[in-house]
Specification:
about 70% helix; homodimer; 2 strands; Farnesyl Diphosphate Synthase; two-stranded antiparallel sheet; mainly alpha; 15 helices
Chain lengths: ~300, ~300
């Protein structure tokens, strides 16, 4: 089942995702002088933990497709998929423990603890996100807390684990954490923007898809926090509940968001976090992070 | 949600299970000279990992009741319950890592690794058990592999973690592992027997319940491995599939199992594992294990 999820063996070849988190971990480790081998166990563990969360998220969100392939639960059933995800979580940490061949035990234990702390925080974020599905309203603070937990915590862990692999001290690890968090926030808000205004051919995302499903994303949450107006009413009424929105309704909501300046507001929020990345003095890590925000092509 | 699961706070008081695994861990640790404090983090982590597996098992088995209370998923929905289970898994390991205040880092890392290994093996067992639900037949070897993974692995981990807490060497840890495994096997087969022949008032288990649900348990798997006969046909035909069995059909299957001697066969299998427990030289641990097999009262 896990081979199926990863698109390996008889189940590949297929689009396998960008491997952003382990690449980030390894680039941080290398920037601090670690070899690839010294970072590999942690990088593999991180990618596995991320994929375990995807397997469970797909069940929780009832998503039947990921990267154009059927999700694990939609092929093997919910029971086997929950359990396969659990097994992947265990394998992730068994892999991380292998880092003891390159690092002292106390450092590996700190890494295990950091990854479980991220794991715990991700669950907080996912719990909020599930609750959003039936929420009548979501405020900006709660939305930012949700993405900080659900998305940014694992990028923060990627940077922290990379820094541990490079033998960094506590202050340097904390600095790398801030960097990972800023990247994660920018990455998620950018993802939200693409879910509304994406160029489908370039990104594989369907423009307006998040609106049709009434997903609470940055532009919508921001728009509904603005003073009452006609376009504000359009968004509010569309998000009041009911069946998925039809294409005509989606187009009206997107137009209202444009009128309100929600796209520019998202751009400003991204720019704020990108500022943290631009201020980082290490060229290798900085270029990787800024470049990764373009892995999904620029919004036209 | 986790408070609800454990029956704490506004959700209690309620029957909370026997806490068998953490008690076993602490008794092993104490037998080796450790204090309660030195074993407490590991014991709490173990009980949390066990409960995380219960939360997910209840979803996977669609069980709506546990200890007479509604299961987490049946109150909060599948999505939140999967995620709450995941969070509990993370909290379990964050708790285990706290053991570093009493033990050297390399020992704690070995404990974390041992618990993740058990976690991984439990998933193997659960995957087999889910597959059993739709299996036309289950052989005795596969059945024993299933319970060795799903049930015995965590008792094995209880003994191993207790031994680590007591500062045991590799040979002693391995010996305690064997003890935990033998106990787990005996415990599960005994549980299987109670699922068919239990005194409901004394155990809370409904006699014949596992038969009505066509569960593959030791007595049934053993019976179907015997040569063809009239009672053998009764069991085989009842397990050929279809709707849950009616009380009259259940009674006929139980009578057939009695005629075949399935209850005695289960007794012999239990006795074999109990022999390992009786041979253990430490009186405290031995008495606890033998006594625990009677926590659920003796079959009348």
């Amino acid at each position: 089942m896990l081979f199926y999820h990863f698109g390996y063996g008889p189940h590949g070849p297929s689009r396998r995702g960008k491997r952003l988190r382990p690449r980030l971990l390894m680039i941080v480790a290398q920037a601090l002088g670690a070899s690839i081998e010294e970072a590999l166990d942690a990088a593999a563990a991180l990618e596995m933990l991320h994929n375990y969360s995807l397997v469970h998220d797909d069940i929780e969100d009832r998503d039947e497709l990921r990267h154009g392939r059927r999700t694990l639960w939609s092929v093997y059933g919910v029971a086997q998929a929950i359990n396969a995800g659990d097994a992947l979580c265990a394998v992730s940490f068994l892999t991380l423990a292998c880092a003891v061949r390159h690092h002292p035990a106390d450092r590996v234990l700190a890494m295990v603890d950091a990854l479980h702390a991220a794991h715990r925080i991700m669950c907080d974020g996912q719990s909020l996100d599930i609750a959003f599905e039936t929420a009548a309203q979501v405020d900006l603070d709660t939305y930012e807390r949700m993405i900080a937990c659900k998305t940014a915590a694992l990028f923060e862990a990627a940077c922290a684990l990379g820094a541990y692999c490079g033998g960094a001290d506590a202050a340097a690890i904390a600095a790398y954490r801030s960097l990972g968090r800023a990247f994660g926030m920018a990455f998620q808000i950018r993802d939200d923007v693409l879910g509304i205004w994406a160029d489908q051919d370039a990104t594989g995302k369907i423009a307006g898809n998040d609106i049709a499903r009434r997903k609470w994303t940055f532009p919508v949450v921001w728009a509904l926090a603005q003073p009452q107006s006609r376009p504000h009413d359009v968004v509010r009424e569309a998000y009041a509940g009911g069946a998925p929105l039809q294409p005509g309704e989606v187009a009206r909501v997107v137009a209202a968001l444009d009128q309100l300046g929600a796209r520019e507001a998202a751009g400003r929020a991204i720019a704020e976090h990108v500022g943290v990345l631009e201020a980082h003095s290490g060229a290798q890590v900085r270029e990787f992070l800024l470049g990764s925000l373009d892995l999904v092509p620029r919004i036209p």
